[in-house]
Amino acid sequence: MSEQRIGGTTGSAQIPNRTTHITGWGHEVPAATLTNADLEKIVETSDEWITTRTGIRERRIASKGETTASMGALAAARALGVAGIKADDVDLIVVATLTPDHLMPSTAVLIKGALGSTRAAAFDLSAACSGFAYAYAVAHGFLTAGLGQRALVIGAETLSRSVDWSDRSTCVLFGDGAGAIVLEALDLEAGQGAASRPGTLSFELSADPSGAYALWIPGGVGEGADPLIKMDGAKTYVYATRTMAAVATAAIERAGLTPAQVDLVIPHQANIRIIEHVSKAINYPMEKIFVNLDKYGNTSAASIPIALSEAVAAGRLKPGDVFCTVAFGGGYTSGAFVTRWGADPAHGARAASVDPASIRVVRPEGGAKADEPPAVLQAFLDRRHR
Ligand SMILES: CC(C)(COP(=O)(O)OP(=O)(O)OC[C@H]1O[C@@H](n2cnc3c(N)ncnc32)[C@H](O)[C@@H]1OP(=O)(O)O)[C@@H](O)C(=O)NCCC(=O)NCCS
Q1: pLDDT at position 12, please?
Q2: Of the residues 27, 171, 268, 271, which is catalytic?
Q3: Above 50 in pLDDT, residue 268?
Q4: Closest Cα to atom 16, ligand 1: which residue?
Q5: Which of 56, 104, 111, 374 is the most buried (most CB within 10 A)?
Q6: pLDDT in tens, 234-256
């Protein structure tokens, strides 16, 4: 009774000479902004301390009703629009997030519903700030194995609801938002070497349990489960600088390239000092590294797809360019991938045709806790309506 089956992703064959390429991209960030000056009114901090230690000047905060699923769905709808395809052209939806609306259902299923997809397989993936690199790798594996033709890969977070707003060592760092890409299978012509091969070229993923409790959210289902982020900042800083340089170098080498052959690096947007350290460590100029953390802070799994979407819009990627993304995060995890860009950046304009009002996430009866911003931020969220 196939007509009763919702979903429809099937396949078994390993396809030779197949890779993937990005054909759609998009992002969504909340309208409400929380500046460093605002944070001076919440915790004992200063704009000067935050700016010099991190490079962050402001971050976006989800208002009531904005959630990981709603932002992820809008970013995904824009990516579909840019790719020029419909929701039912997608075989797989993977959402990288550490702030899902619920433990169950997955955010990916909520996004599938909001997009009106009837057939995609959908699930969430947990690899903290490295989540987008992990999700991209999983989708690439799915498509090159012949399990489908197209995937939506989404990174989305509502970190403002998982931050302890009385802990100045963490609350100044994080922000909310979502980014998405459409990844499509691409059959290669015989004999295309690293210097000319289109699409995805390489990955490097790692996980280091020695940092498991240096950056973590106790959460889970235990008694007194705590949803708030805890962090050993100094230890995480050391891990970040070492692993970012190492995984970026490994991914670039695995692609058969040298750093000089990479046109753009899109790093996880956690801290400008970490990014500058990586620039020196791999001898790669800051001018070729995309940075937007001053506007958004650390949006965890969303940071790279938001940055990618903005980089294309800013004209930083053109067909034939090679870019490398590199991330680190809780776990500890890290991940990098190298891709040759092939899409026409002008397709980005198609995202404007998506009407946000048409993308609605189904909420449970009586509303959901995931919809509510922290009370301490309410005054800052209200002021934009004044
Ligand atoms: C958090 C981080 C910015 C701190 O920077 P730092 O240079 O290590 O900070 P310093 O050691 O110079 O300063 C620490 C001092 O600043 C204080 N401090 C911490 N947060 C502060 C804030 N928001 N405002 C003012 N002072 C602050 C601390 O209490 C400490 O004071 P003390 O020395 O009196 O104990 C840095 O460690 C970092 O970026 N770590 C990685 C975090 C990260 O990226 N996490 C996400 C991973 S995906």
Answers
A1: 47
A2: 268
A3: yes
A4: 169
A5: 111
A6: 999 999 999 999 999 999 999 99
Determine phi and psi for 94, rounding to 5 degrees. -115, 130
> Over the chain, what is the mean pLDDT?
93
Contact at 8 Å (CB) between 80 and 29?
A: no
Residue 312 parent element (H or E):
helix 303-313
Domain boundaries, given as residue ranges, for the chain? 11-344
Which helix (H) or strand (E) element contains residue 340?
A: strand 333-340
Confidence grade of residue 386 (pLDDT, cut at 50, 70, 90): very low
Cα 215 to ligand 1 centroid, rounded to whole Å: 14
**Ligand 1 atom at minimal distance to the Cα of residue 234:** 37
User: What are the CA-CA distances from residue 271 to residues 31, 132, 276, 307 (Å)?
Assistant: 22, 18, 9, 14
| Cα 171 to ligand 1 centre (Å) | 11
Q: Is 337 left (phi over 0), alpha (psi -120 to 50) or beta?
A: beta
Which of the following is catalytic: 21, 27, 36, 129? 129
> What would the mean pLDDT of 285-298 be, rounded to a whole number?
98
Instruction: Tell how strand 230-231 and strand 264-267 pair up.
Output: unpaired
Burial status of residue 254 (CB atoms within 10 A of its CB: 0-12, 13-18, 19 or more): middle
Q: State how far the alpha carbon of 178 is from the alpha carbons of 76, 231, 293, in Å.
A: 9, 23, 14
Tokens of 192: 């295309």
Q: How far is the CA of 348 from the centre of ligand 1 (A)?
A: 37
Percent of the chain with pLDDT over 90: 87
Q: Which residues pair with 199 in a beta bridge?
A: 340
| Six token digits for residue 109 | 């299923």
- pLDDT the model gives residue 192: 75
Cβ of 165 less than 6 Å from ligand 1: no
Instruction: Output the six-digit token pair for 256.
Output: 């058969």
Distance 50 CA to ligand 1 centre (A): 9
CATH architecture for residues 11-344: 3-Layer(aba) Sandwich (3.40)
pLDDT on residue 385: 54
Q: Is 268 a catalytic residue?
A: yes
DSSP letter at 34?
Answer: E
Q: Which residue has the tokens 């012949």?
A: 146
129 is a catalytic site residue: yes
Cis check for the bond before 267: say yes or no (omega within 30 of 0). Answer: no
Distance CA 206, CA 246 (A): 10
